[in-house]
């Protein structure tokens, strides 16, 4: 039987992947860093919990179980990464050899060590191609003509943000940037936008210019749409071909019900 290791982040997507894999007769070995991950995953027979800094322990677990393929999927919020982190020797050596500690640099460093240990990292759309965003308007309504310039401002802001690897989400209103994503993550960025600008904001989320689908692929889903509805946003702009759109049917239905657009554009 084929085996796949899974570093599971928060949300429903990792559990969805496990079910898709097991339908195909693939045995999954989930690894969790946080208590907040899906309860079903924590009950999985192969599940182990490790500290995010225990890179050596992760590699040992995979090798002992003869696993040569690894998937990393699910939400990992930056403000929780650095809480109670314990660096083992492997992780400490990695940090000492990196030019900086940006998200992308760190992830590529981890991928490099895993590959040297004989473990291939699968792209996050593995068996999930149906979730890759397409260039189109998903909802019944499109961007209003009066908001086209505001969306352009959001796209330029998100391009700048992703190019320096700080975040992926920008919230805009009336041709102005309201909030930029930082260490707090997408959800808090959206909440701050409502605090500062009230109703009628537009959420823009893009991938990195050279997005590596093996790590930190941007995802939107029902939670994002619920956040947009809660702040009475006008809509969500996402990037086509480089993101995962999870729980599409429910998300589109909720957006249509609340007259909120979801549009995927090419960079």
Automatic annotation (TrEMBL):
> Per the database record, which ranges form the LpxI N-terminal domain?
3-131
LpxI C-terminal domain boundaries: 136-262
Q: Which Pfam families match?
A: LpxI_C (PF06230), LpxI_N (PF17930)
Query: Organism's domain of life?
Result: Bacteria
Q: What is this protein called?
A: Septum site-determining protein MinC
Q: Read off the InterPro entries from this record.
A: LpxI, LpxI_C, LpxI_C_sf, LpxI_N
- Coiled-coil intervals: none
């Amino acid at each position: 039987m084929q085996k796949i290791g899974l570093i599971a982040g928060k949300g429903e997507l990792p559990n969805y992947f496990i079910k898709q894999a097991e339908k195909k007769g693939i045995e999954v070995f989930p690894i969790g860093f946080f208590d907040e991950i899906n309860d079903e995953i924590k009950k999985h027979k192969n599940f182990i919990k490790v500290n995010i800094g225990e890179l050596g322990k992760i590699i040992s677990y995979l090798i002992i179980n003869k696993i040569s393929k690894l998937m990393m999927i699910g939400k990992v919020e930056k403000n929780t990464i650095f809480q109670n982190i314990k660096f083992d020797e492997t992780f400490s050596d990695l940090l000492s050899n990196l030019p900086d500690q940006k998200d992308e640099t760190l992830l590529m460093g981890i991928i490099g060590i895993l590959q040297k240990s004989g473990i291939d990292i699968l792209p996050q759309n593995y068996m999930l191609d149906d979730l890759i965003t397409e260039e189109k308007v998903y909802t019944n309504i499109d961007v209003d003509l009066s908001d086209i310039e505001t969306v352009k401002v959001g796209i330029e802001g998100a391009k700048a943000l992703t190019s320096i690897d700080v975040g992926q989400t920008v919230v805009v209103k009336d041709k102005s940037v309201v909030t930029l994503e930082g260490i707090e993550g997408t959800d808090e960025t959206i909440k701050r936008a409502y605090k500062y600008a009230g109703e009628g904001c537009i959420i823009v989320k893009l991938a990195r210019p050279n997005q590596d689908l093996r790590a930190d692929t941007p995802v939107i889903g029902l939670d994002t749409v619920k956040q947009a509805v809660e702040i009475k946003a006008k809509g969500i702009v996402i990037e086509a071909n480089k993101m995962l759109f999870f729980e599409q049917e429910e998300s589109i239905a909720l957006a249509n019900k609340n007259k909120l657009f979801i549009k995927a554009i090419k960079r």
